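Box 3.1 A note on notation
Throughout this textbook, protein chains are presented in two layers. The first layer is the amino acid sequence; the second is a token string describing backbone geometry. Keep the layers aligned when reading.
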Amino acid sequence: MVLIRDRIVHFIENCGLPYQQIEKKIGVSNGFVGKIVKGSSFNVNILDDFLIAFPNLNPLWLIAGEGEMFIDADDKLKIHQEDIKKDFEFLKQEMTQKIEILHQKMQSFAV
């Protein structure tokens, strides 16, 4: 079973950057990345730091081991568009409900 820690180590070893540069990008102290590679535990919040510092790192791969390690810009755009569409549908539904409530209140005043 491959753990999140194993995927973090795999990313560190394959991203093409020296440890110090990775540490600087994710905002941790010198030696932190080396400790992870050697097996030290880390706070799960560091995953956010990796995902923010490396926007092409696939969150689904990192967390669940699904898909490819890196996603390209087109994939990120598709994900973003899907999120926007879901948000729009939610807001549309919410507004429709509020309009219906207002319509019912207006009808009660007309009586």
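The radius of gyration is 22 Å. The chain has two domains: 4-71, 72-111.
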